[in-house]
Amino acid sequence: MRDKPLTILGIETSCDETAASVVRGRIPGPGEILSNIVFSQTEAHAPYGGVVPEIASRAHLEILDGIIERALGEAKITLPELDGIAVTAGPGLIGGVMVGLTTAKGLALAAGKPLIAVNHLMGHALTARLTHGVEFPFLLLLVSGGHCQLVGVGGTDDFRLYGSTIDDAVGEAFDKTAKILGLPYPGGPAVEEAARSGNPKAYDLPRPLLFRNSRGRDGADFSFSGLKTALRQLAQDQSVSVPDASASFQAAVIDILCDRSRFAMDLFRADFPDANTLVVAGGVAANQAIGAALARLCEAEDFILRVPPPRLCTDNAAMIAWAGVERLAAGAGGDDLAISPRARWPLALGRHTPPGAAP
Ligand code: KG4
Ligand code: ZN
Questions:
Q1: What is the pLDDT of residue 332?
Q2: Amino acid 359: pLDDT
Q3: Do residues 121 and 347 touch, judged by C-beta distance below 8 A?
Q4: Which residues line ligand 1 at a C-beta cut-off of 6 Å?
Q5: Please, which residues have CB within 8 angstroms of residue 255's CB and are 6 or more apart in sequence?
Q6: Is the pLDDT of residue 352 over 60?
Q7: Ligand 2 centre and the CA of 215: distance in Å?
Q8: pTM, whole model, 2 decimals?
């Protein structure tokens, strides 16, 4: 392990945020965020109610250079002063990932610095080490627009999948709910806001796969499609209250997340008897009501809860830069400049596999 802190430029373009950041740190953290520039393309996609891949990649291409210049400028760091350049190489929208990866390769080549190809999910997974210096192992609840997983994290190359969604991701469920209820895009923050003035018991919505439900399944898998269908049926009634429907939907999501997490805690304890930290990551971790419910669960189960601040839960490049710190500090070295972007790249099929390697 090295004593000298590493200074890494991170680049993120896998969805609809164009982001660059400079982070300095040593493991296990916390690290120092010297700059964190995030340009959200929300307005460009809002008329379509979701991310349009072609619009996203063109927007990344147009503004990424300027965002990187701003990140370096705010951090007062020049390219020669960097220890490496970390970039999201997947999973995500392939056009956007390609823009970021190509730019990073050019910079790495020009500056003679190692290129670190980062799995976007690993970025989310390790954020709590950047913000709180959380030690391995920890239980991770990863809840984003594309993913919903419970994972035991034993190290940067030890991810054990306890459960994942069998249909929609939880962020996707929030986004679809918003669309059904006529709320603006992106749906998560809009549903949370509407739910604030609603009654969570107003509508009786299903909680698919609940472990303690006699019809439920064993394991820590999630399902949200039944909830979405029930909500769509509810919304056909013109007199439905949007705040009440939002609050009832959010209450069902909370019940599902807490129940699955409780089950995963048992699996995690069996793997790591001395550990008791739950980390929540991904865009949905920005939801205050979900955070409060998980805090109650952790208190009851004798777990410590760590949730990064909202701006580091949603997509950003500081988490990618930090994953670069972790990879370099672990002695992994840089990746080959010939690597390809990956639209799909599971985090927890076992051990960390570099992009371009056989899945
Ligand atoms: O991690 P993220 O920024 O992008 C992905 O990698 O997917 O997550 C975006 C997702 C979206 O589905 C968004 O609606 C959801 O996170 N989200 C929220 C909240 N803020 C963002 N969901 C619920 N409550 C929120 N406050
Ligand atoms: Zn993400």
A1: 82
A2: 38
A3: yes
A4: 15, 144-146, 171-172, 174-175, 186-189, 192, 282-284, 286-287, 314-315
A5: 207, 210
A6: no
A7: 32
A8: 0.92
Residue pLDDT, tens place only, 32-60: 999 999 998 888 888 887 788 888 889 89
Closest CA to 233 of 204, 191, 196: 204
133-142, 152-161, 205-214, 298-307: which has the minimum mean pLDDT? 205-214
Which residues, including other chains, have CB under 8 Å from residue 296's CB and lie 6 or more apart?
none
Q: Which ligand lies nearest the alpha carbon of 93?
A: 1
Q: Residue 261 in contact with residue 278, Cβ under 8 Å?
A: yes
Please compute the mean of the pLDDT values over residues 111-139 and round it to a whole number: 97
Higher pLDDT, 145 or 31: 31
Which one, of 325, 344, 304, lies nearest residue 30 by Cα? 325
In this predicted structure, the answer to whether residue 210 has a pLDDT above a threshold of 70 is: no
pLDDT tens, residue by residue, 239-259: 999 999 999 999 999 999 999
Ion ligand 2 nearby residues (CB, 5 A): 144, 315
Average pLDDT over residues 87-113: 96
Q: How far apart are the CA of 319 and the centre of ligand 2, in A?
A: 10
- Show the domains of the chain with their CATH numbers: 6-131+312-329 (3.30.420.40), 137-308 (3.30.420.40)
Select from 14, 5, 66, 1 the least CA-distant residue to 34.
5
